[in-house]
Design a protein that fits this description.
Double Stranded RNA Binding Domain; 3 domains; single chain; alpha/beta; binds pyruvic acid; 529 residues; TIM Barrel; 3-stranded antiparallel sheet; 8-stranded parallel beta barrel; binds acetyl coenzyme *A; EC 2.3.3.21
């Protein structure tokens, strides 16, 4: 790895990332996220604004004893002192010292319009606030980074003043002046030109803090590095105020894999997918499947022609090896599949069908026909696997359904209840059972479990965890064809199946029977119907 001092990866998930609408992190969440960030190997973790946000004050207090950081240093974030006072007398500056972090990052105004209208002070007093606050913190043993807020807009409006801010901060002892695209309106060429200029005119160590309002936060950060910045700020998964901050993971992956830099400890980038998902869990944000590098779809291939080239060499349709970021290639089978897609998907599921061209052609055609009728296999691997087995060697059969029936009754003053009757043959016996439930699918599930439970006790381990219904032809109203996807788990892993029918219960039953059949197959139960 490059000396972490020469290039700073600075994470602000816990501060600017937490400024995202809808996100509220507890102190415990923040401590857990900080541990993940440290594992990712970032050099600095900005924990929050002590003295302004009570949870952040508490975070720094607990971090002293509860965090055992191996790679990162903690940074406390805050503002320059108030106008007309001194840093030593400003309680918010004191709170930064009280956080007891090795690093303090100060936000400072660098745009004349903001000094005059938001801070409502003079340009000279703003420079004095910067010099005094940086000097006071450095004098108290802190390493100081200065976030020059609205720098790029400020540089356009009054470049001389923006440069004065950079010089003032540096002369007062700031290690890095971070140029902030606070409103996120920049494009990469603006950033490159500005960073080059500022570097040439000040010689200061520069960093970049980008927001994503033009969709260019990562590109702007890379452009800043290309122009000479040696400190980048971002948030895991790109959370942050408005449209978010530069996604730190995309940014470091680009720097390592596209620019050939080594900005994380050896092997850390391979943990990126796991850590991005762990942070999604802790922030309670559903992972974004199309997220570059680490999203579930980042290396998922759907088009048949892509699959046919990938069969020869995955690099033909991938910009990098997913293993570099701990992700996996996936093949999706759908109506856009060709034989190569079916062959590679089968291999992914553990079946080598490469020698059986006829089988592959048959399966491909059935997938296309079924998709035309409303099925979708890309989200239902288990149904695809059952179809493959059916074509290859016959469907595993644990029970043969003769018929089913379900009624739903509404009783005055109570909730509606459903009762299902299922007739089937299993283990050489004909079984007729009933089951009750709070809805028709629940009642059918109970009846099926009762019918085969004695023969296949492993069914107890199987649990339905998700049930999604989609109307395929909404123009038909209640006549429309329905698609049901169900997800089942055995506690270790989960699988999805699909059912389609004009009747919602028929579609659900088909998906349920597939899910149970696949579950029994996974449990290794002998097929004895
Ligand atoms: C670009 C960024 O994302 S920076 C990070 C922003 N983060 C946050 O704002 C989250 C935490 N913020 C807070 O808890 C509160 O807003 C506080 C404690 C900072 C300030 O709260 P309050 O004193 O109640 O005032 P309010 O939120 O209305 O802000 C206005 C005050 O901040 C001052 N101010 C505004 N921007 C800055 C700045 N960059 N540096 C210093 N002071 C500033 C204004 O001059 C005004 O001060 P005044 O009341 O003395 O005139
Ligand atoms: C400092 C900061 O968060 C910004 O300027 O966007």
């Amino acid at each position: 790895m490059t000396d972490p001092e020469q290039f700073h990866v600075y994470d602000t998930t816990l501060r600017d990332g937490a400024q995202q609408e809808g996100l509220s992190l507890s102190v415990q969440d923040k401590l857990a996220i900080a541990s993940h960030l440290d594992e990712l190997g970032v050099g600095f973790i900005e924990g929050g604004w002590p003295g302004a946000v009570p949870k952040d004050t508490e975070f720094f207090r607990r971090a002293r004893t509860e965090l055992n950081l191996k790679n990162a240093q903690l940074a406390a974030f805050g503002a320059t002192r108030k106008a007309g006072t001194t840093a030593a007398d400003d309680p918010q500056v004191r709170a930064l010292l009280d956080a007891e972090t090795p690093v303090v990052t100060l936000v400072a105004k660098s745009h004349v319009g903001h000094v005059e209208r938001a801070l409502r002070t003079t340009l000279d007093e703003n420079l004095a606030m910067i010099a005094d606050t940086v000097g006071f913190l450095v004098g108290n043993g802190r390493r100081v980074f200065v976030d020059a807020e609205h720098f790029f807009d400020g540089y356009r409006t009054n470049p001389a003043y923006a440069l004065q801010v950079v010089r003032t901060a540096t002369e007062a002892g700031a290690d890095v002046v971070v140029l902030c695209d606070t409103n996120g309106g920049m494009l990469p060429d603006d950033v490159t030109a500005t960073v080059r200029d500022v570097l040439a005119q000040t010689g200061a160590r520069l960093g970049m803090h980008a927001h994503n309002d033009t969709g260019c936060a990562v590109a702007n950060s890379v452009a800043a590095v290309d122009a000479g910045a040696t400190h980048v700020q971002g948030t895991v998964n790109g959370t942050g105020e408005r449209t978010g901050n530069a996604d730190l993971i995309t940014m470091v992956a680009n720097l390592e894999l596209k620019r050939g830099m080594t900005v994380l400890p050896d092997g850390a980038l391979q943990e990126a997918t796991r850590i991005a998902h762990a942070v999604s869990e802790l922030t309670n944000i559903v992972p974004y499947s199309r997220q570059p590098y680490v999203g579930a779809s980042a290396f998922a291939h759907k088009a048949g022609l892509h699959a046919s080239a990938i069969k020869v060499d995955p690099d033909l349709y991938q910009h990098t090896d997913p293993a570099h970021v701990g992700n996996d290639m996936r093949l999706l089978v759908s109506d856009m599949a060709g034989r190569a897609s079916v062959e590679l998907k089968s291999r992914e599921l553990g079946y080598d069908v490469s020698g059986d061209r006829e089988l592959v052609t048959r399966v491909t055609q059935r997938v296309k026909d079924l998709e035309a009728a409303g099925y979708t296999f890309e989200a239902a691997d288990a149904s695809f696997e059952l179809l493959l087995r059916e074509e290859a060697e016959g469907r595993p059969s644990y029970f043969d359904v003769e018929s089913w029936r379900v009624i739903t009754e509404s009783r005055p003053g109570g909730d509606a209840v459903s009762e299902a009757t299922v007739k089937l043959r299993a283990g050489g016996e004909r079984v007729v059972v009933t089951g009750e439930g709070n809805g028709p699918v629940n009642a059918l599930d109970h009846a099926l479990r009762t019918a085969i439970g004695a023969l296949y006790p492993e069914i107890d381990k199987l649990e339905l965890i998700d049930f999604r219904v989609r109307i395929l032809d909404a123009a038909h109203g209640t006549d429309a064809v329905t698609r049901v996807l169900v997800e089942m788990t055995d506690g270790k892993t989960s699988w999805e199946t699909v059912g389609v029918g004009a009747n919602i219960i028929e579609a659900s039953w088909e998906a349920l029977v597939d899910a149970v059949t696949y579950g029994l197959l996974r449990q290794g139960g002998a097929s004895i119907s």
